[in-house]
């Protein structure tokens, strides 16, 4: 549906936004773990300032889920402009040629902002903003990006799908008694 690197970028944005509700980026170590989980390479400051920048970016990215198309475009263009993004095809690690629009020595939050913006370019361009959803579990405030072929993703990646299924199963069992 989207380019591979866009799909990874979109999944990353959702994961980053979803670190906010029960704060998962509690300190620099937690940010380190998140960054390596998502295989970010390049420059790291490992400072509180860097952590704060990433948390601030998260707030801006969360707005994409409540915005209409024009507002999404404003956010995306703003992120690209601020970072002075300059798209370049690069190849590194196990990846084939893909786009980077910031140099690897740019601050982490800047690189994350641009990766997010680049991924959202694909969503806007293909008219797929309806793939941005909220998790349907009643007690969950996480966001969802539906990358499935049949547009069937209803729950976030924090296990809500399983949780809801288990609860429904218990309910059925109780009804039988
Ligand atoms: Zn890359
Ligand atoms: Zn959820």
Rg measurement, Å? 18 Å
Q: State the helicity in percent bands.
A: 40-55%
Q: What is the SS-derived class?
A: mainly alpha
Oligomer: single chain
Task: Give the names of the bound compounds.
Answer: zinc ion
* Overall shape: globular
Question: Strands across the major sheet, in which order?
Answer: 1-2
Q: What is the terminal separation in angstroms? A: 46 Å
* SSE order, one letter for each helix or strand: HHHHEEHEEH
**Main beta-sheet strand count, sense and barrel state:** 2 strands, antiparallel
Number of helices: 6
Task: Tell me what the structure shows.
By secondary structure, this protein is mostly helical. The chain has 6 helices and 4 strands. Helix 1 packs across helix 5 (108-125) and helix 4 packs antiparallel against helix 5 (108-125). It starts with a helix and ends with a helix. The mean pLDDT is 94. One zinc ion binds next to strand 2. One zinc ion (ZN) binds next to strand 2.
Which features characterize this protein?
single chain; 4 strands; mainly alpha; 177 residues; binds zinc ion
Q: What topology emerges from the helices and strands here?
A:
Layout: H1 4-17, H2 28-37, H3 48-62, H4 69-82, E1 88-90, E2 98-100, H5 108-125, E3 132-134, E4 143-145, H6 160-176
Antiparallel strand pairs: 1-2, 3-4
Bound molecules: zinc ion (2 copies).
